[in-house]
Amino acid sequence: MSSICPDNLTSRLPVNKQCDYARPVPHQPRSAQAGQETPGPEAEHALPLQLGVDRTSPVPLYYQLSQQLEAAIERGRLAPGSLLGNEIELAGRLGLSRPTVRQAIQSLVDKGLLVRRRGVGTQVVHSQVKRPLELSSLYDDLEAAGQRPATRVLRNTVEPATAEVAAALGVAEGTDVQLIERLRYAHDEPMACLRNHLPSGLIDCDTERLEATGLYRMMRSAGITLHSARQSVGARAATGEEGGLLAEPAGAPLLTMERTTFDDTGRAVEFGSHIYRASRYAFEFQLLVRP
Questions:
Q1: What is the pTM of this model?
Q2: What's the pLDDT at 285?
């Protein structure tokens, strides 16, 4: 019996204990100067996070707690830099035993979402974006997940199509095509480097608009109906330049994606070659059994 969590030996009555949780501490940008880490006014008005614990559920209480915390991190309710307090404080707030809270926190530490800092407490490091494999843009997916997307355009120019780009877009090699290279952020952290080639003149590739919204939104607003895509996913090590852009060391694992997107007439409207931080990003698949 000593190995069983004490909380699983308590009341069998239907209980759903709702508790206020730690208030998020605003994430400080990497460029913040020393001595400027005092939380801003928004921290004083942040809504407390509500957590529910159902003692009648067969799901272990530590797992209930860890899943709710993970969801709060992924949705931006607990932003990078948020302090959760120590285990004793959390256990008291939630009406749980300390071993239960410790197990829940450790599971998120193991996933890289939380870190324990001596003299500070438990702190949110970052969330991992889990993106479904469907015809959607990274900007839309991040925004829907509450990840506060932002974009910095690195290059926006016209260049001759290479053999690979020409084959993907169905144009002759050497034909002028639009090259757009962007760095995509979530919660002020770099997430991905996006390199897209478009047929020249397809849309107005205004740099200011590219930094304010997603490429697919710009296409749809231009009357282009996205219909289907051919996509491949892989992985490789980061170069020194890529690591510098994505805040990863050279040789760090990267996820790669190549996608050719077609409109409803069958015309290729975009060829994308993207890299993502494997520490912060994952693709989700839904697999179906063949009838």
A1: 0.56
A2: 61
223 and 160 in contact (C-beta within 8 Å)?
no
- How far, in Å, CA of 104 to CA of 275, rounded? 32
- Give the helix/strand (H/E) hosting 218: helix 215-221
Distance CA 162, CA 185 (A): 28
| pLDDT greater at residue 247 or residue 85 | 247
DSSP letter for each residue of 26-38: PPPPTTPPTT--S
Q: How many beta carbons lie within 10 A of that of residue 31, not counting itself? A: 7
Q: Which of 151, 131, 62, 133 is nearest to 100 (CA)?
A: 62
Give bridge partners of residue 200 from the DSSP assignment: none
pLDDT in tens, 65-74: 888 888 787 7
Q: pLDDT digit string (tens) for 170-214?
A: 999 999 999 999 999 887 888 899 999 999 999 999 999 999 888
Residues 6+ apart with CB under 8 A from 289: none
Residue 218 CA to residue 232 CA, distance in Å, equals 24
CA 108 – CA 265 distance, rounded (Å): 46
